[in-house]
Each structure stands twice: as C-alpha cells, then as structure tokens.
Amino acid sequence: MSAKSLGGALYFVTFIDDHSRKVWISLLRSKDEVFEAFKEFHMRVERETGQKLICIRADNGGEYRGPFDSYCKLHGIRLEKTRPKTP
Questions:
Q1: What's the pTM value of the predicted model, to 2 decimals?
Q2: DSSP characters over 10-48
Q3: Are 63 and 31 in contact (CB under 8 A)?
C-alpha cells in the first residue's frame, strides 16, 4: 500500500479459495507477519469448515521460506511456489 492504514499497516496478504472465490485479507505492519497471519487463517478456516487445508500457492518471496515451509510440511499442507515474475 502506498500509505499506512489507520492501524499502521503498510502491507496486506490475501488468501483466496480457488473453489468458492472467497477472499480473506490480513493487514500487516511488516512482511515478516505473513507467517503469523497464515497460521491464524489456517486454524480459522479448518475450524469453520471442518475440512483440512490441502494446498496453498504462494509467490517465491522470502516470507514463504524457512518456518513457513516447515509449518506446511508439519501440517501436511502442500506448498506450491509460482515461478518468478508470474502473477
């Protein structure tokens, strides 16, 4: 975002369900908050739907490496990373 939100966020992450096209948005103060936002999203979606999250697709950004990758492996979530410079 070009300007801070009222809560001081400069970034956002969106989670989109490919089947229903439902969108969840989390506002972030820094990019390193993506992992915590995803963990909250993961728990909320599984609790609300009663179904297990199977796969997530993300860009090849640094915020999706390390602990994020380990978390997905631990919970049986397939992490698909897009090729660089693709939407």
A1: 0.85
A2: -EEEEEE-TTT--EEEEEESSGGGHHHHHHHHHHHHHHH
A3: yes
